[in-house]
Design a protein that fits this description.
By secondary structure, the protein is α+β, with helices and mostly antiparallel strands. It is built from seven helices and seven strands, in the order E-E-E-H-H-E-E-E-E-H-H-H-H-H.
Length: 323
């Protein structure tokens, strides 16, 4: 089946970890939609028409699955769950922090997911179903999807933490302004990731507290573990952002010290040459009566005098501890 008709893939779960592939023609009617997973592409009119008029879903659920912009959340509707989740963007040429959304409605009998961009976690579930090692029911699907999203999120956050470590080491030996660009990238990545990971923690936590009949105690415990993992990721992102801010302050301080030192050296040089410039300026005016104007040794005497004045100034600055 192709994505041009809106149905990316669909399965009827066999309760053993596998499933039978379905298409639009073999897709069961709403009354018989037991143990089915339907994954749809929101960019097609066929998907919009099916969700609005043929799916049998309530208008509220259908509208939520068609939302343009989403934030992670979980809402219990009757005995079903409407949940929006985000995963890191691992598509070629994309930034991981440009997180991809998946919209999910799931109840005891049916799973409907929609997306606008490809999400590797969803493809992993499809591959596991084809291999016979996928989720067996709705609760298993929810746990599998949440876990797959976190499995791909963990390495990205770990790389971000390693990048902060590397910048901390570099700032001890480098004061180049280029480091500020690296710090800006790290802080931006941490902020964008946290923007969606933090509400995802709240969504997963809510699933463990709501009374949902098809989420039994073992499934609830696994969802609680997933919520704890999300919490750790949020804490890691907060720590990375705070560390980057501290490093940026240290870098700004070092750059400021370097600038002040350079300005101080220039001020000392200017202080030494200011009297010498005054003397040479006075001797350089072209008026009558200038001393030594006709004496052949005048230039030599003036030059020696300037060297003596400069040496006196240098030792005076040294004594005052200005240099």
């Amino acid at each position: 089946m192709g994505q041009e008709d809106g149905l990316i893939y669909a399965y009827r779960l066999d309760g053993k970890g596998g499933g039978t592939r379905l298409d639009w023609d073999t897709l069961p009617a709403d009354a018989d939609a037991r143990d089915t997973w339907i994954h749809l592409d929101l960019k097609t009119e066929r998907t919009k028409r099916w969700l609005a008029h043929e799916s049998g879903l309530s208008p509220v659920v259908a509208a939520a699955l068609l939302d343009e912009e989403t934030r992670p959340r979980a809402t219990v509707i009757d005995d079903g769950v409407l949940i929006n989740l985000r995963g890191v963007n691992l598509n070629p040429g994309s930034d991981p922090e440009d997180m991809v959304s998946v919209r999910v409605y799931i109840d005891k009998d049916r799973i409907v997911t929609t997306r606008r961009r490809r999400l590797m976690a969803v493809q992993a579930i499809r591959d596991r179903l084809d291999a016979g090692t996928g989720p067996r029911d709705s609760a298993g699907f929810l746990i599998e999807l949440s876990g797959q999203l976190l499995d791909r999120m963990g390495p990205v956050i770990a790389d971000l933490d390693d990048e902060v470590d590397a910048i901390e080491d570099r700032v001890l030996t480098e004061t180049r302004a280029a480091l500020r660009g690296d710090l800006w990238h790290v802080r931006r990545q941490a902020i964008l990731l946290r923007r969606y990971v933090a509400p995802q923690r709240e969504a997963m936590t809510r699933l463990t507290t709501e009374p949902i009949s098809w989420i039994d105690l073992p499934a609830a415990q696994r969802l609680r573990e997933i919520a704890d993992r999300v919490t750790r990721y949020v804490e890691d992102l907060d720590a990375a952002r705070e560390r980057a801010a501290i490093v940026q302050d240290e870098l700004a301080s070092r750059l400021g010290e370097q600038m002040n030192r350079n300005m101080y050296i220039l001020s000392v040089i200017a202080g030494i040459f200011l009297p010498l410039s005054l003397i040479t300026g006075l001797l350089g005016i072209n008026v009558a009566g200038m001393p030594g104007n006709s004496w052949p040794w005048a230039f030599t005497v003036v030059s020696i005098g300037l060297v003596i004045v400069g040496a006196i100034e240098y030792f005076l600055f040294k004594r005052l501890k200005w240099i």
